[in-house]
Specification:
The chain has about 350 residues and is an alpha/beta fold. The protein has a domain of about 220 residues: Rossmann fold. It is about 45% helix and about 15% strand. It contains twelve helices and eleven strands. It has a seven-stranded parallel β-sheet, sandwiched between helices. A two-stranded parallel sheet has the order 6-11. Helix 1 crosses helix 7 and helix 4 runs parallel beside helix 5. It is globular, with a radius of gyration of 20 Å.
Length: about 350
Amino acid sequence: MNARPRLLITGATGFVGSHLAEAFRGRGHAVVALARDGSETAFLEQLGVTLQRGDLNDREAVARAVQDVEVVVHCAAKVGDWGPIEAYRAVNVEGLRNLLEACRGIPLRRFVHLSTLGVYAARHHYGTDESEPPPERHIDGYTQTKVEGERLVLEYHREHQLPAVVLRPGFVYGPRDRTVLPKLVASLKQRLVRYLGSRRRALNAIYVGNLTDAVELAIKNPQAVGRVYNLTDGEFVSKERFIGSIVRSLELPPPGLLAVPLWLARTVAFVLERQARLQRAPEPPALTQARIKFLGLNLDFSIERARQELGYRPRVSFDEGMARTMAWYREAEYNHPQATGPQSVA
């Protein structure tokens, strides 16, 4: 078997996918990317990535993309915390189904599916591991369909012997994040950020470089097939530590010292979401249940299975990862202000 298998990466024009493409090209792999028409592909072209135009709902393009590859890394997804569930399901479930169908009968070495720690219940977590099943119903279309996507992948593993691995990363941060970080910085500048409940509660953070390492381990390790793995940086990072690192780096005003009680935040979010849905608002309200989870819940998850079975050892600490992230942000904001604006994930 080829020591450097040819990979297909979906979502390679997005934040995580571009880092995966960069990492595997740097290690000598041939990489194919499924890229939508009109998407920005200059970075991938510079890396020498082979482009296959189309999206997950284009069955012919998907079938062409999987030809002659040994590994598929699926990280394309519709993300967000607002909008009709059908829009999320069209990409995160039905688009995924098209990809899985195209892989049937192909002698793949591995199919790595990037899910999210968001599939767990929206409550406080203290060392939750993979033995806890995700709930049937979720608070938004994204997490609901990511659960459905996981189940579909594992179904293809059981019924069609697909050599699949499911990875559940936490909140991914790092250079080239043009979605979450710019919005958070903008909110901090406008003094719109408030801690919800205790500022010392955990954030389930993972540096994008640590995630790419985990993907490589999932590809190499035969024991990973059919398994699900939680992934974080493996160290305690509080909401205050995460936001404080941004505030200090950019010399921004810190969030107010008075935290909003969690029960009050939930009540306000319920009312705002209900009003926005009745008005069919295209954008989410200022506070949603998903944002409460990010800013208010204790999100501590065990990565012991990944340590033991994959040999996963996060090589980049949170402090170093954030230093790299903020160095990129300052350079991008100074030289290309538009480059830090929100973009959709491929």
